[in-house]
Amino acid sequence: MTTVAAAPLAGPAARSVKNRSLPAWPVAGILLLYPLWWALGLGVLIFPLMAAPMLFLLVRRRAAGRPLRLPPGFAWWAIFLIAAVVSIAALGADPTGTVVERASDRLPAVVYKLSMYLSLTVLLLYAGNLTEAELSRRRLVRLLAGMFVLTVAGGLLGMVAGTFEFTSPVEWVLPSGVRNKGFIRSLVHPYAAQIMDLVGGEKPRPAAPWGYTNTWGNNFCLLAGFLLVAAWASRSAGKKALALLCLAISAVPAVASLNRGLWIGIGVLVVYVAIRYVLAGRIWILGVVIAAAGALAAVLTATPLGDTVQARLDNGKSNGVRSYLIERALDGFAESPVIGYGGTRDTLGGRNSIAVGESAGCERCGNFTVGGNGQLWQLLYAHGAVGTAGYLGFFGYGLWRFRRDRSAIGVAASGALVTSFSAMLWYNSLVTPLAFMVLAYALLWRDWIEGSDHT
To answer: Where are the membrane-spanning stretches (predicted)?
Structure first.
């Protein structure tokens, strides 16, 4: 039988076929160029900016006749989004022991968070609807691995140049009354570290390029597994060696960050991955874990890093504040258990006195943020039981639905989600941690659709 090559499509038909494809640049551009966005002062603002073209491209492809896929369990996420919107109705409420404000004064922060949740929803749908030809899973893993390398580089910068900061172009163009606001400044002003007194004397704690030390630690845990997957998928011995070197070096800023949540998260990740591999019959992983633990113990014993860890464990200055805020969050949840209060609230003063509070000269003095010390507490307080169930239900359902994915990508992605469940006790997820969580979910989803018979 003679095979006749099809003639190239032309005219409207060709344009229709072309319009059905999704370009990789919105996702790749966010990740690959994130240092540029950070330096420009865009940082997390790049997510809503990129969500606009991603949404347009999804709608265009849908109009061209190609169906839009929704991830398994998306109904749970829809419940969360609906609850987040409905809870705005309680924005004018002033729970016991909180600063009295008008709903309109609280609305900008709520609109910001809701816009970020919606933007990351678009990111989830876009990344999940990409095909292997448009953006392969291996390339997405390499991009996420690059973000881990960026995190380590930012950590080292925070250690050696803790006071490094500069005025970004976006910051320059903002009116002085706007850019000097603490929240706005945290979005558009690049800096290397947060200077804090946790173990006696003020010390820099790595934050670049994620804005906060806690966010830096959260992203460290979420991204670490992807570096190993990307390196081992390569045939280059040099890349494997560089990945191991990067992991070894990463221990230095991880310890210097004084971030106990990060240390716990890494432990959770290692245990989870070990269990998954043992259940798959790969007992050798136990030898790797033991060897790595021995090497880490030797480093902590032979270097000043061990003293740093011990000093942090001996100085739990934040424990009292965290306990106080958890109590306030649970009390607020008991007062409004269904829809919450629509957003966070500031406490009247500090733990010991209502006389301590913010002033014109100190925006962040005294008034602690209820719901600002962990995603779980914020969900319960701001969006009640319904919003919390939707958020946890979505990621929990994903872990259960994709539990049989034993590929390296599947284990790394599910490991990221598992660490996020421990992190939500002390870290908030917006913005970049949740972005990496939805990208991990998209990888699991695409493995399920396209088959996980790969690295």
So the answer is: 32-58, 70-90, 110-128, 140-164, 216-234, 241-256, 262-279, 284-305, 380-400, 433-449
